[in-house]
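Exercise 7b. C-alpha cells:
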C-alpha cells in the first residue's frame, strides 16, 4: 500500500478519498438512524438500508437548499 502511494500518488489519493467519502456517509447514516436493522429477511434488510440512505440524501439536499440557497438540478429522464 505504501509503495503505491510512492509510485502513483494521485491515483492513491483518489482511491483514498472515495473510501473516506463512503466511510463518512456510513457514519452519518449510523449516527442518524441509531436503531439496528429490524428486518430479518435479507431482501428486506437491503430495502431498509436503501430507505435509510435515501432519507439521508433527502435530508442533505434540504440542508443545501435552506442553508446555502443551492437548488439541485434534477436530470430529466426524457431528455
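Sequence design result:
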Amino acid at each position: 500500500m505504501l509503495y503505491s502511494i510512492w509510485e502513483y500518488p494521485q491515483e492513491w489519493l483518489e482511491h483514498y478519498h472515495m473510501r473516506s467519502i463512503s466511510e463518512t456517509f456510513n457514519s452519518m447514516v449510523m449516527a442518524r438512524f441509531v436503531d439496528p436493522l429490524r428486518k430479518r429477511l435479507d431482501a428486506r434488510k437491503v430495502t431498509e438500508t436503501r430507505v435509510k440512505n435515501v432519507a439521508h440524501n433527502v435530508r442533505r439536499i434540504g440542508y443545501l437548499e435552506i442553508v446555502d440557497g443551492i437548488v439541485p438540478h434534477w436530470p430529466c429522464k426524457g431528455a
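Instructor comment: The first helix runs from residue 2 to 7. The mean pLDDT is 78.
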